[in-house]
UniProtKB/TrEMBL annotation:
SUPFAM superfamilies: PLP-dependent transferases (SSF53383). This is L-seryl-tRNA(Sec) selenium transferase. Keywords: Cytoplasm, Protein biosynthesis, Pyridoxal phosphate, Selenium, Transferase. Its cofactor is pyridoxal 5'-phosphate. One of its GO terms (cellular component) is cytoplasm.
Amino acid sequence: MTDPRRAVPRTDALLADPRIAKAAEPLGRDLVKSVVTAAQQRVREGLLTPEAIVDDVLAHLPGHATSLRPVVNATGVVVHTNLGRAPLSRAAVDAVAAAAGATDVEFDLTTGRRARRGRGALAALADEVPAAGGVHVVNNNAAALLLCALALAPGREIVVSRGELVEIGDGFRIPDLLASTGARLREVGTTNRTHLADYAGAIGPGTGFVLKVHPSNYRVTGFTAEASVADLAGLGVPLVVDIGSGLLAPHPLLPDEPDAATVLAQGAHLVTASGDKLLGGPQAGLLLGDAALVERLRRHPAARALRVDKLTLAALEATLRGPLPPVREALRIPLPELRGRADELCATLRAAGVAAEVVESAAAVGGGGAPGVELPSVAVSLPAHYGEALRAGQPPVVGRVVRDRCLLDLRTVPPGDDATIAAAVRRCG
Ligand SMILES: *Cc1c(COP(=O)(O)O)cnc(C)c1O
């Protein structure tokens, strides 16, 4: 008997194979070697013939040197936290690539001296919200709140309504985040009703600021009351408003979603928001408002630990200055357009023998905001077993399994990806 291991092609021979060597250039030798090792193991186990090993290695090489894989979001959830929230616009992706090498992020090419870091992105943000006297960008909205607590309420109290003690997701809670800075939370009111007098009664010399948090992933309905931003702004202490989703101006389809410009016009001293929710940009925490307060935040030692990198600054500026990002396109796209695409996709699939149907669907903004708002949409409905098969495909397509059907909601699919979906479904055949 010949030893089957004798038949396993050697690692150096495989790495020298011209097709594998070419693929190794952009990926790096170590990564390719690990794929080669796995293929050799399959030969040893008799799962693969030695002749097929090169094709197998090529088939298993990732497209990029990262384990993060691009997926098609057909869930109908526009801002899908588990799928990386906002997909960047083409302009933002290009900006990231342009800034990836050496770049003048903190350098003035005219004078040859140090310049304000990320001034282009900051200017773009300031231009979008003229009511903001100052702007600053940190790692995410949680970081923005952390910085507010550290800079404005060290050893002091943050006054907040019991109806706004929000868990953001994955067990993270805003009250715990704030308390971790050493600031004390002064809860006022009740879960469903908090009045201006509740805040007024809690304010004193130990108050750092009043915090108003937008309930972005839940709704309190029924017998409810809350104090307005305008009222809270007049209490004589700084008012910080966490609007959550990151709309900079009102959005016609989301009338209940707060926006930075309006909240500042109502008197808020500082607004905090996420960059990768309804703004449609990179993960970032946006701070806008009173120039002196923003400067205090910027000057706090912790600001350095919360600052964003050049890639974020590049993507943020391009999102603000460039064309409508995918999140905003997904909100805007008219129903008949979605229906036309769904009809076409469905016809293609049925011609290939797939039991596909077009059905009405309700898309959602997602954890990013506007809880309870349904966006009318259209989906291609497939037998449920496609759900798992499509997730295992290349690229993975993530749909929504509802009872015995797998729904591919087109509101969150960029129009250019319909053909990708058709091919993915056919491969599951
Ligand atoms: C999402 C959200 C946060 C957290 O924002 P990140 O950018 O994820 O850190 C905080 N507050 C509200 C109201 C939110 O909606």
